[in-house]
């Protein structure tokens, strides 16, 4: 069985009917229980649950404190290539966009690593566009070896790899894989992925599972909120995380909540997700899966991010640069998306401390 | 209150402290002081030796015994490698084996824990295994060379207290080595309860670290552990299932004629 069957099981489900049937009383009952079922989770994403945000926040805060304590793990992305053969309607690296393309050499990657490590960052997320020609698995693995000399943990967000490639990557010391489904809604998925291998919905959907099977330490999933109805997308993200955690208990599953940001391309059909709605998603997810790490990137504004800390966000990117070669500055290109929180690592640390939390630089090391 | 003998050393305090989950590293030395603890556990995966201000080791007073733990290990092999790394980094010979291959409930894997204990005890480590409270596993861990066992009171971070009380009670009765109740202790009263039952020590992290005033909470735990220990050594009065009725049901047996 694959997660595709779970998604398919919800194809004919009347989401709108269910969501509008949820009333305040039902939400109150759910919040008084310890265990949250799949349907309870969906109910917590309903319009009615929005009236109980404070209650949800109280519970989410308690659960997050118990499981993660007063600590927020910091990491930073490192973009090493922006060549991409896909045409994703929402992305600045889209093959059709006329941006300058660059792929870093190992020496340049080392320079980036040296600059980034000066900020104190110990965990990095290595990113590339999707191009088997410019950034094949071997290139990524070689790059990760360079990065490991400077960081304690290296995870990757690159084109979906095969099981064998993930096994090789895990053995080479890559700790984790981030892969966003972007849109769980298959029709929307087809609509926004205009061409390229990424059009293969099924292959992408099964990617996190291949990473789990390859014994990756951590696997991060998420939907790009704004492409489609956020409630359904948030629900399917939770179902995906839950499916993976149940089937691969030794893999640490985490979730991210990227919202669409302005970029070099154009995608007009964004169905906005408000701050309140994003907060509701984060809270519902925490109540549904208390042990799952929740991650928020610099796509969000500084103030908003800081306010999310006590609500259950325990992973933060900081001092991020989304340009290839951006840390060492020599070969900077266009960014994949615009950053909202442009604070330095030091400033982010101060903000975390001001909230009564501890910035954590290291939470794992290659052993 | 007698001293705790464990792994060939004597400890005056029966409260062990965890170092994760604190709002800042600066809080740690104060917590250690107010708790009176002599043994603190640190997750080696969080030790950052690259920068002094980030290195948790530099916040722990020198006379405290370090108990590096293998948190993050998913199997015996990873636990062994983490323990060896800890020793190589100068963290000493003590190690708390923590093997968790279940990220949903964070329950320890006794089988893998046993394998790691066996290997590390043979390498001269003073091994304290964190475990599900199962008597047979505890016995095997002792045979493998552990210097004590650390059964969980309730799953990590739940603050639910001694949910496994009956099973821990059996371990306390049957295992001759120190029994340290670990995980689940969410309030000083839980710690006192464990000590009253006869546990040799308790390890507390979440309840202190995430309280509004960790320094004060550490003190509260220190007092509770002492109270529980005193109660245990003073022998609690026997519990009776029936009230002593003033006219007992069998009283007639003593009446004349029977
Ligand atoms: S989202 Fe990824 S695959 Fe799509 S265009 Fe951007 S870099 Fe390429």
From TrEMBL, chain A:
Domain Radical SAM core: 70-299
Top-level enzyme category: oxidoreductase
Gene: thiH1
NCBIfam families given in the database record: thiH
Enzyme Commission numbers on file: 1.3.8.1
Protein name, UniProt field: 2-iminoacetate synthase ThiH
PROSITE patterns assigned: RADICAL_SAM
Organism: Peptoclostridium acidaminophilum DSM 3953
Domain of life of the native organism: Bacteria
Listed InterPro entries: Aldolase_TIM (IPR013785), BATS_dom (IPR010722), rSAM (IPR007197), rSAM_sf (IPR058240), ThiH (IPR012726), ThiH/NoCL/HydG-like (IPR034428)
Example GO molecular function: iron ion binding
Key words, A-Z: 4Fe-4S, Iron, Iron-sulfur, Metal-binding, Oxidoreductase, S-adenosyl-L-methionine
Required cofactor(s): [4Fe-4S] cluster
From TrEMBL, chain B:
The family this protein is said to belong to: Belongs to the ThiG family.
Self-association state and partner proteins as the record states: Homotetramer. Forms heterodimers with either ThiH or ThiS.
Binding site for 1-deoxy-D-xylulose 5-phosphate: 157, 183-184, 205-206
Native source organism of the sequence: Peptoclostridium acidaminophilum DSM 3953
Domain of life, per lineage: Bacteria
Compartments in which it is found: Cytoplasm
A GO-annotated cellular component: cytoplasm
Enzyme class: transferase
Protein name: Thiazole synthase
Keywords assigned by UniProt, alphabetized: Cytoplasm, Lyase, Schiff base, Thiamine biosynthesis, Transferase
Start and end residues of each Thiazole synthase ThiG domain: 5-248
Enzyme Commission numbers on file: 2.8.1.10
């Amino acid at each position: 069985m694959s997660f595709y069957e779970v998604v398919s099981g919800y194809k004919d489900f009347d989401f709108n009917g269910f969501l509008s049937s949820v009333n305040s009383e039902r939400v109150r009952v759910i919040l008084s229980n310890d265990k949250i079922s799949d349907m309870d989770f969906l109910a917590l994403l309903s319009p009615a649950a929005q009236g109980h945000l404070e209650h949800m926040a109280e519970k989410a805060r308690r659960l997050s404190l118990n499981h993660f304590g007063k600590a927020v793990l910091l990491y930073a992305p490192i973009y090493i290539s922006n060549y991409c053969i896909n045409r994703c309607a929402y992305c600045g690296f889209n093959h059709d966009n006329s941006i300058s393309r660059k792929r870093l050499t190992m020496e340049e990657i080392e320079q980036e690593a040296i600059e980034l490590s000066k900020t104190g960052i110990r965990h990095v997320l290595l990113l590339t566009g999707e191009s088997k020609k410019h950034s094949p698995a071997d290139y990524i693995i070689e790059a990760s070896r360079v990065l490991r000399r400077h960081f304690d943990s290296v995870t990757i967000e690159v084109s979906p790899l095969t099981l064998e490639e993930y096994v090789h990557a895990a053995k080479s010391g890559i700790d984790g894989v981030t892969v966003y489904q972007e849109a769980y809604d298959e029709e929307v998925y087809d609509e926004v992925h205009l061409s390229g291998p990424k059009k293969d919905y099924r292959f992408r959907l099964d990617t996190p599972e291949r990473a789990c099977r390859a014994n990756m330490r951590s696997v991060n999933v998420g939907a790009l909120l704004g492409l489609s109805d956020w409630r359904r997308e948030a629900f399917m993200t939770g179902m995906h995380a839950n499916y993976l955690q149940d089937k691969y208990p030794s893999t640490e599953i985490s979730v991210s909540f990227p919202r669409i940001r302005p970029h070099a391309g154009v995608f007009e059909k964004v169905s906005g997700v408000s701050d309140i709605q994003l907060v509701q998603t984060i809270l519902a997810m925490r109540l549904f899966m208390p042990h799952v790490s929740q991650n928020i990137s610099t796509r969000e504004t500084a103030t908003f991010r800081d306010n999310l800390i006590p609500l259950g966000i325990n992973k933060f990117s900081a001092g991020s640069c989304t340009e290839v070669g951006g840390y060492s500055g020599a070969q900077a290109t266009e960014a994949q998306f615009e950053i909202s929180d442009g604070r330095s690592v030091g400033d982010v640390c101060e903000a975390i401390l001001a909230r009564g939390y501890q910035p954590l630089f290291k939470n794992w090391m290659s052993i | 209150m007698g001293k705790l003998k464990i792994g060939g050393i004597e400890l005056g305090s029966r409260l062990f402290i965890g170092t994760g989950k604190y709002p800042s590293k600066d809080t740690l030395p104060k917590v250690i002081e107010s708790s009176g603890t002599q043994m603190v556990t640190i997750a080696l995966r969080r030790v950052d030796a690259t920068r002094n201000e980030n290195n948790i080791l530099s916040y722990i007073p020198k006379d405290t015994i370090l108990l590096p733990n293998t948190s993050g290990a998913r199997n015996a092999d990873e636990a062994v490698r983490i323990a060896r790394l800890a020793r190589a980094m100068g963290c000493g010979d003590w190690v708390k084996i923590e093997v968790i291959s279940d990220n949903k409930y964070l329950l320890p894997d006794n089988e893998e824990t046993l394998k790691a204990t066996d290997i590390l005890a043979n390498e001269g480590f003073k091994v304290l295994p964190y475990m599900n409270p199962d008597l047979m596993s505890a016995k095997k861990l002792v045979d493998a060379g552990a210097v004590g066992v650390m059964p969980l009171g309730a799953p990590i971070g739940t603050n639910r207290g001694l949910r496994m009380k009956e099973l821990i009670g059996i371990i306390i009765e049957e295992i001759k080595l120190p029994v340290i109740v670990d995980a689940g202790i969410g309030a000083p009263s839980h710690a006192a309860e464990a000590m009253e039952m006869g546990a040799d020590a308790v390890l507390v992290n979440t309840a202190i670290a995430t309280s509004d005033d960790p320094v004060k909470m550490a003190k509260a735990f220190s007092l509770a552990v002492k109270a529980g220990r005193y109660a245990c050594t003073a022998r609690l009065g026997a519990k009776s299932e029936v009230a002593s009725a003033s006219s007992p049901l069998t009283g007639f047996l003593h009446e004349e004629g029977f």
